Amino acid sequence: MRNLFILAFLAWAPLLIAQKILITGQVIDDDTEEGVPFCSVFIPGDIPMGVTSDVEGKYRLEMELASLPSDTIMAASVGYDNLMKRIDKTQTELSINFRLKSSSVELETVMVLAGENPANEVVRRIVANKERNKRKNFDNYQVECYSKTELDLNNIDPKMKDSPLFKDLQFIFENIDSTSDVKPFLPAYVAERIYDIFYINGKGKKEILKAQKVSGVENSTVVDFIGQMHDEFDLYDNYITVLGKEFISPFANNGLFFYEYYIIDSTHIEDEWSYKLKFKPKRRGENTFYGDFWVSVENYGLEIVNMRMSEDVNVNLVNRLLIYAEYKQQDSIWLPYKEKTVIDFALSKKREKMMGVIGRKTLMYKDFQIGQEELEKTYKEADPEDIDYIALEKADSFWSEQRHEKLTDNEKAVYKMVDSIKTVPIYQTATKLLSTISTGYYEQGPLYLGPYGSIFNYNDIEGIRLGFGVGTGPQFSKKLRIYGYGAYGFGDKRWKYRLEGQYVFNRFKRREVGVKYINDVLFDNRNSEQTPSQGLFAGFLRRNVPAKMLAVKEFKAYYQHTYKRGFSNRLAIIHRNMIPQGAIFSRSDRGFNFRYYPDANDYTKIDTAVTTTEVLLKFRYAYKEKLLRGYFSDLSIGTKFPIIELSYLAGVKGVLGSKYNYHRISAEISHWFNVGPVGWFSYRIEGGKVFGRLPYLLLESHPGNEAYFYNPESYNLMNSFEFVSDLWVGVRAVQHFDGFFLNRIPLIRKLKWREVAFFRGVWGSLSQENQEANALNHQDNGGPYYGSFNQGPYMEVGAGIENIFKVIRIDALWRLSYFDNQDAQKFSVRTTLSFYF
């Protein structure tokens, strides 16, 4: 029996020794969800055994079980923390995936001997060849693009599963594989789009949407914001714009001034001999990246780029910004194949411990056609605004076939979870709270309550003022909106109110009609089409100067017609009655003493109120403007091009008691643009002319600011009605340095304060006939109210610090002219609330 056992053992021993184990898997970047190419995957020991992952991060390792150096397997790549996992030796086939976390850039081991760093020459050749690879340099091109956007609440601690807050959200934990490295997350939004891009050099780009699939957030403004997390960028450009911030590209013409580069590897990628370079910023506090890229040695085109926002970048609420890009070669040109952007939003830098919001946007391209003659005709016929949203809804089978890449298991789970989450009470409550904070209105079923900023106010005329408004929302009707607001002043013991109605024919090419009636006490003499709404502190915490307020009754009917995005006009008919508040002719009173000679031939007649009927026509042109579209209003998030506004207003005498015939023309051009590492600059130039003999309440009363708070729409050291013109031109310019100087000061840099400087100036004149008509109120005649520009332009300058606690701005302001005017303020310190990423 013993001999039989020995014989059996000897027979099976070679088989046991030769038994093999197969380990396969993928190495994934934990942030971008993309494979890590050419990563070392090995089993450590005295004689390590391993392989290198392919370009997609996949690997295959097969060996004899008996020869395993250890029972662990490790993945290691430059720029990532090493990750080790245990091998189950009882299995002969294993699937082991790695999710590597990015590590800080440490390149102390890299040595550059005598002579120039060879990586610098590689970078120069990339710059020298980049123009041939930039899409905007092509004569024309056409390509199909697939975009995928996702917004999630991340960093949810698995321990929260037992929290009462997550009682109705157990499914978010059930959809995560307990053996994976993926942390539970709460999806809020996921969308896919397929569209064609047509581009002609000199004419720009058109996008024609072919299909879309959306699940989650139903607020169109939020959806648009998510979809525009970043501007379109080309990594070959000198600057990459994300959330309005310009970051210096590692492939900028002057990239060697901002970055250090090192060659760390070389291999074949799809038959192209390629270098891998690592790069990091030379200085802290600049808008730069760190990361790595692969570049073809043959023609120095980019192949794979993986980069992250540098530490100490002065940007708010963004803990991480990641950009990943892949390129494919076509006719010796390297074209984009995949671009992915990941933005991690959170209130605290301790992102591993605090819940935050993470946005992911992926773009994939296929079927590039370059230099096709027939594209000219296709481009001309394409209309991006002509969209049939019903036709865009496609069956699941369509998406299975047309997606440029398959959804991951997590992405499939997101669609299921999003639809379930919308019915959970805590989710609905949180959504309402965020909406209330961002819009100022609280949604209750089909109604909106607010704005809450108008509940309480105070001014010299009304005393304490309490108000409340209610209006209908999209749940009531997506086309009709009705709104009413009422307020009571405990000082003047009078009710004020406002009623509005609006009907939208088309919100995508915004075409709407509306009516509004106002019975209120206001600080501004301009009609509701000419002035922005009064802020929360319009009459609160003012300087000790007379409160010049008007009891206004206004009726308005209007029609707005948008021809295409950024180009619209508006026609309005307005009837107004304005009565200055306070005792007439009593200069000691805090009221508004207004007097006017209505008849040039009879100076015994004096008017103390104004009644007018006006017809207004406005044109607005904002080329390539980006909009956040709502059901009843659009919010502009800007354009890289100047915005031009033209308006013509005619006063019609004899209609509804109107006393005046006059004409008013005005024009305005405004523009903002980034200025590289120095921040961003904005300006506004405006001017106009009024034709007619009028009370100064119908002329251009240049907006002053008598509150202690900074107002970006006013001349902040000018008093209300201090200057009046019938011919004028004004300039406003602001430079936001975004921490360009303060970021270079240790310790101060950690505060992330930002510098700002500005100039405002206006110059005008008043015709002789209007000086005579308003002589009773001119400062030269002892009146306390308006003056004209008889000593040159009015000017003021200022400098300040913004981004204090992320939302506070403090400015020091100096007045440069008209120091002797009544109640003139030569210097002041003002504060306001402002937020920029």
UniProtKB/TrEMBL annotation:
<dbReference type="Pfam" id="PF13715">
    <property type="entry name" value="CarbopepD_reg_2"/>
</dbReference>
<dbReference type="InterPro" id="IPR008969">
    <property type="entry name" value="CarboxyPept-like_regulatory"/>
</dbReference>
<dbReference type="InterPro" id="IPR043741">
    <property type="entry name" value="DUF5686"/>
</dbReference>
<protein>
    <recommendedName>
        <fullName>Carboxypeptidase-like regulatory domain-containing protein</fullName>
    </recommendedName>
</protein>
<dbReference type="Pfam" id="PF18939">
    <property type="entry name" value="DUF5686"/>
</dbReference>
